[in-house]
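User: For a benchmark we're assembling, each entry needs the component sequences followed by a predicted structure for the full assembly. Here are entry 17's components. Please fill in the structure.
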Amino acid sequence: MSVRVRFAPSPTGPLHIGGARSALFNWLFARRHGGTYIVRIEDTDLERSSRESEKNILDSLHWLGLDWDEGIDVGGPHGPYRQTERLDMYRHYAEVLLQKGLAYRCYCSEEELAAEREELLAKGELPRYLGRCRALTEEDCRRHEAAGRKPVIRFRVPAGDAILIRDLVRGDVTFERSEIGDFIIIKSDGIPTYNFAVVVDDHTMLISHVIRAEEHLSNTPRQVLLYDAMGWDKPEFAHVSLILGKDRSKMSKRHGATAIEQYRAKGYLPETLVNFLALLGWSPGGEEEVFPLNELKQQFSLDRVAKSPAVFDLEKLNWLNGHYIRQAPLDQLTDMAVPYLEKAGYLSVPLSPEKYQWVKMVVASLQKHLSYMEEITGQARIYFEDDFEIEGQDAQDIMAGEQVPGVLRCLAKKVSVSGEIKENDAKELLKEVGRDLGLKGKQIFMPVRVALTGSTQGPDLNQIMAILGGEGIIQRLSRWT
RNA sequence: GGCCCCAUGGUCAAGCGGUCUAAGACACCGCCCUUUCACGGCGGUAACCCGGGUUCGAAUCCCGGUGGGGUCACCA
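Assistant: Structure for entry 17:
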């Protein structure tokens, strides 16, 4: 049987970190087994679903490099791939269930339902639907309809044994049927509920493995009941544990950036997110931590997926992204950097070829220092702002050194006669200063660094000088000489 | 609260009955490299939730407790 898996987001917001990982795991599983990867949109929540969110999710998926074989916007033989375009199908199957007596119309109002829930709660029982409309006659139905009541369709949970779910990551999990009341499969507006639509879709789309977040585990028994009632084979299930925030609760907005687009906006690379997310809940077993997509897809397997939830560690993400930034081609990084520098007011586009080359030098000098590209705004400040403060006591102390005025004067003189300054020239000039004054190491480098940038930390000094250029250096030095 | 899931260092995690005086990565701390700053390299601190079993032997299996998480909608 061929592998067919799907990612089925509901378009009620941007693609979340957790959703992205589900999408990734499904994608990896499909690619690993030469299967088919499908993206389906679960937009049966008419209130909250939007085309903007749908587009956003698809954009994020594209950006991550998770291409799909069937689904929204690429089509396929099992479409449509948007649930609101499949309503006839759900109604058809609901009708089948109705005909077989496995489902029934329910006319209970929200108030009646709420009252029932209160009552059960008060008695300390599990709130669930007790089946008031289970045995309605045709006559009853007509009466309710006449009274203007719109029915929902409920699934009639049959009596029987505990429901067993064989989960590929959790093992066997059982649920008692008594915990499950007759649940709604078609809402009063004719739209199917999640549990029903998901079963109809997964079956009709020939899904072989349902890989999704653990929060869906407790829904699974209802879906199993539906498969059985329809006489359909069940897919394999694999429930992956959740991604947690720092406080160990389900990752949400209050934990910081949760949407893929936010990381994209901050200048993280897609390969970082993919690599990081893959390692969150899955482990290759070896000692390597850095895996590009194409390696992941060769190694991924469900039996190496962890059962315990994982805390999202921003520090490790930052390290990984820095790692990828250090390896990325300079042109790519420069293109990424320009919008941030422009936004900071440091550049105005379009850039002349000369200016672009210069920006490349800026980016090259910072490449080893960045965790994500947005940081360049702060770190590139040293190249764009002349009237900076001397930061911190360390820097002040350094500038108080008695050799400092001599060093800076000497350097200024050499720079002024040297014309254009390349990295090697800078190195040479500094060496000469040291020779002339009989100084070395920190005694000359640190004062120059602080005089030029205001800080004891930053990029390679030779690069800084090359980027500032002769005039820039002299101007900044003039403050001290 | 009921039900379900989970439990190795601060975090991600390897481990799937003996080779565990328990890998690796992030973070942290040292040292080295660099006549500066980083990057990088090397080293270090740091963990099997508790209690019972099973077994010659348990981080690994079973039970209980505790802790954490998820879920209980005409949301997905």
